[in-house]
């Protein structure tokens, strides 16, 4: 872009109109209705992605998870319907793919995460047919249940990639629901359920890991850890994994693929990223380590916690308080403790609600043992949390 391109100036520019970006915009406007805030977001539709596990399980349609983006742009906020292409944190500008340029006093970087399908050879061509499903991609989530329900015997394979991903519980949530579905249909004895993960264990937090390993044992789940999916061969229905220094092949009749994920390229190219390309912010105050007028939260940030909407709900008020303090020349005293949550659907009608902090310590909301499967937590996931999202978080109220 030309150095002399006209600049559209705003006080605060937010890159991304997903969960993190809209929540921050709403909280900023509620804190100071006079603030000039702009949100950069190309999408016309806004998704509540936690519902996609239940779409894949046949309980909802994808349409139930989406609303018009325009309905959630806070009143008084400028919606820039474009995508960020580059950031110059020295000149304090954001270049847009459509050719425009924005100037800012403070910048919030919340563009979300990219599905890196290209890292699995043959995956993109196979998605949505020949038994290859994914709940991570809105183009294909509606097809998961049809393929899952068509299984009558053989191997149902569920994968988990290497590296950070959004909602790290989702790859096993659909596995537990599939196991229950097969049992209800009376075909579980003839169907092998395999969880092949690039990781080393079923869950990272000890309390919930123990509970989930007991379910693995009780339900006969075939777990293969240290298995990173690198290729799919849909004609022969083979999945190729990297296991240490060797390749291993597992045949499948159905496979649910959780793709590798990555931050948008412009972050690293704009000198905002750490070694992994994630926006390099202080894990407590959410301010950039090098550029004090830049803040970040959500999936694209370097915050060393699970990438979930529940984490964003705790991050957003901290970011807003600290950003406003920074503008006023006050110390940044609000601190995020790494809280995240994962409602693990362990069967139809039951959920283990995992809540934890940076240190892997349970940070539970309720008085009872949340490592146990509960119908009440199923109600929380399916009925309460979607309403909290649409009418609480995105309105800056929760």
Produce the secondary structure layout:
Elements: E1 8-9, E2 12-15, H1 19-31, E3 37-40, E4 45-47, H2 52-56, E5 66-68, E6 78-80, E7 84-88, E8 93-96, E9 101-103, E10 106-109, E11 114-115, H3 123-126, E12 132-133, H4 144-149, E13 154-160, H5 170-185, E14 191-197, H6 206-219, E15 222-225, E16 228-233, E17 238-243, E18 246-251, E19 254-256, E20 261-262, H7 265-269, E21 294-296, H8 309-328, E22 340-347, E23 350-356, H9 375-391
Parallel strand pairs: 1-9, 2-3, 2-10, 3-6, 10-21, 12-19, 13-14, 13-19, 14-15
Antiparallel strand pairs: 4-5, 7-8, 8-9, 11-20, 16-17, 17-18, 22-23
Helix pairs in contact: 1-8
Question: What's this entry about, in short?
Answer:
The protein is an alpha/beta fold. It folds into two domains: 8-113 and 263-338, FAD/NAD(P)-binding domain; 116-261, FAD/NAD(P)-binding domain, CATH 3.50.50.
How would you characterize this protein structure?
This protein has 398 residues and is an alpha/beta fold. The protein folds into two domains: 8-113 and 263-338, FAD/NAD(P)-binding domain (3-Layer(bba) Sandwich); 116-261, 3-Layer(bba) Sandwich (FAD/NAD(P)-binding domain), CATH 3.50.50. It contains nine helices and 23 strands. The strands form seven sheets. Strands 6-3-2-10-21 form a five-stranded parallel sheet, with helices on one face. Helix 6 links the parallel strand 14 and strand 15. It is globular and about 65 Å long. The two termini are 40 Å apart.
């Amino acid at each position: 872009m030309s150095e002399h391109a006209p600049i559209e100036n705003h006080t605060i520019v937010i890159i991304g109109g997903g969960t993190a970006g809209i929540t921050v915009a709403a909280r900023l406007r509620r804190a100071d209705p006079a603030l000039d805030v702009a949100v950069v977001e190309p999408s016309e539709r806004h998704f509540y992605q936690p519902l996609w596990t239940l779409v894949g399980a046949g309980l909802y349609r994808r349409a139930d998870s989406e609303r018009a983006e325009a309905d959630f742009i806070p009143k008084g906020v400028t919606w820039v319907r474009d995508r960020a292409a580059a950031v110059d944190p020295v000149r304090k500008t954001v270049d847009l793919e459509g050719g425009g340029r924005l100037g800012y006093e403070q910048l919030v970087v919340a563009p979300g995460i990219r599905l890196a399908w290209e890292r699995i050879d043959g995956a993109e061509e196979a998605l949505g047919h020949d038994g290859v499903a994914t709940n991570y991609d809105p183009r294909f989530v509606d097809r998961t249940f049809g393929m899952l329900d068509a299984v009558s015997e053989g191997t149902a394979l569920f994968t988990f990639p290497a590296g950070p991903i959004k909602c790290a519980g989702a790859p096993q949530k659909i596995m537990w629901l599939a196991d229950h579905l097969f049992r209800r249909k009376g075909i579980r004895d003839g169907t092998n359920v395999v969880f092949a993960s690039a990781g080393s264990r079923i869950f990272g937090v000890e309390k919930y890991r123990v509970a989930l390993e007991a379910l693995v044992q009780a339900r006969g789940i075939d777990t293969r850890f240290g298995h990173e999916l690198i290729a799919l061969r849909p004609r022969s229905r083979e999945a190729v994994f990297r296991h240490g220094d060797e390749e291993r092949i597992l045949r499948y009749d159905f496979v649910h693929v959780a793709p590798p994920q990555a931050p948008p390229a412009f972050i690293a190219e704009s000198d905002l990223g750490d070694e992994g390309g994630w926006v390099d912010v202080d894990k407590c105050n959410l301010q950039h380590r090098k550029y004090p007028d830049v803040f970040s939260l959500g999936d694209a940030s370097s915050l060393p916690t699970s990438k979930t909407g529940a984490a964003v709900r705790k991050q957003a008020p901290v970011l807003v308080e600290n950003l406003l303090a920074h503008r006023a020349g006050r110390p940044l005293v609000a601190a995020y403790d790494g809280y995240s949550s994962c409602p693990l659907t362990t069967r139809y009608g039951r959920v283990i609600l995992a809540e934890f902090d940076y240190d892997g310590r349970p940070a539970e909301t309720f008085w009872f043992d949340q490592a146990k499967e509960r119908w009440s937590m199923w109600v929380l996931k399916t009925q309460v949390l979607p309403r909290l999202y649409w009418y609480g978080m995105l309105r800056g109220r929760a």
